[in-house]
Design a protein that fits this description.
With 159 residues, the chain is mainly alpha-helical. The protein contains six helices and no strands.
């Protein structure tokens, strides 16, 4: 149930951004360059998503193990065996293995904090993308229609 709100926000953001952005991109390119524009758009969308996911994962992992090392100083969170046994957002495995109760509580709190950080970073990135799109994407047809109608002084085109 904790995951649903973040997934709904993410899905709404994708719905509002992907199709209009692709349409604006393809409409802004001359027809003879549409193949290259489509290829660049596809390459960026394929590379961008895994890159952002990796950056969010780094934030989650560093926050998770940092919080555990603060709450349970006796644990070496940098060891490979500990990281294999105790993973972010996966406390159920610790409960099954009858781990130290203090470690279980610390891992739960650290998982919650890490999830909140990931949601916050994702929301900030989506709003940043929306701001860039709102400021950077212009409809050249509307600008041309204004210029053709003689209202160029009444509503100056933003470039």
């Amino acid at each position: 149930m904790d995951l649903l709100p973040a997934l709904l926000i993410f899905g709404a953001g994708l719905t509002m951004m992907v199709a209009p952005l692709t349409t604006a991109l393809m409409a802004s390119v001359p027809k003879h360059n549409s193949g290259v524009a489509s290829a660049i758009n596809n390459a960026i969308s394929r590379v961008g998503s895994p890159l952002v996911t990796a950056l969010i994962f780094v934030a989650v992992v560093s926050t998770f193990y940092g919080a555990i090392s603060e709450k349970v100083p006796s644990v070496d969170t940098s060891s490979a065996s500990f990281r294999q046994d105790v993973a972010p957002l996966n406390v159920r495995e610790l409960v099954k293995e009858d781990a130290d109760p203090e470690l279980i509580v610390a891992a739960r709190e650290a998982s919650t904090d890490s999830f909140h950080l990931a949601s916050l970073v994702s929301a900030v990135l989506m709003f940043a993308g929306a701001a860039v799109n709102a400021l950077g994407i212009r409809n050249p047809r509307k600008r041309q229609e204004r210029d053709d109608s003689g209202d160029a002084e009444a509503a100056p085109a933003i470039s």
